[in-house]
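Hi R.,

Here's the chain you asked about this morning:
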Amino acid sequence: MGGLGSGRQKSYNGKQTVDESLVLDLNCILREGLHPREMSMSWKTGSVETASISYIIGKTNNRPTLTLKYTFEGEPVSEYIPIISEPQPYGGVRYWMRCLLMNGSVTVCGNRCSKLYLPPGQKYFGCRKCHDLSYNSCNTSHRFDSYYKEFVQNHGPYPRKRFNEEWSGKGYYRYFRTRRAAKKWHAKMQAEKGL
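And the predicted structure, written out as tokens:
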């Protein structure tokens, strides 16, 4: 019991996050236009390069396409991603990538998105929905709920908003290292209320 990898994972709900994934941003790619070309892109953590890909912007049936070339576990991967355009109400055109992952079923996802993600351990880029990714803020939004419930049980009612403002950033358990410190603080709060 309690071996390597046991217990609660890093995130609140166990989902992988967008922050852990490689992000392919179409807006960054299209800064230099849609003319056919071959380029490369890399991701860094600090000053260390963690991953790189080469991509080709081309045309198929007079529509722009993006072809990614990279390796996954030593195996070369070539991924085709169609680029679709949508006219805007006040002029201009907006470009999207079409997600072609299978999403665990027989049908192709087909979501249009400006960013595609490659989480650790996955072979192909896809949208957040297909990879079931979450944002880091979603995973940490309720991390103080248990502190608040315990605080109310031990020290009586206290407005949730005020608790979040005063104690969430400081860390309730780090601040009240002893029961005596918690009682002292509670007495101070009661005195402020005039009880």
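Residues 144-193 form one domain.

Let me know if you need anything else.
M.
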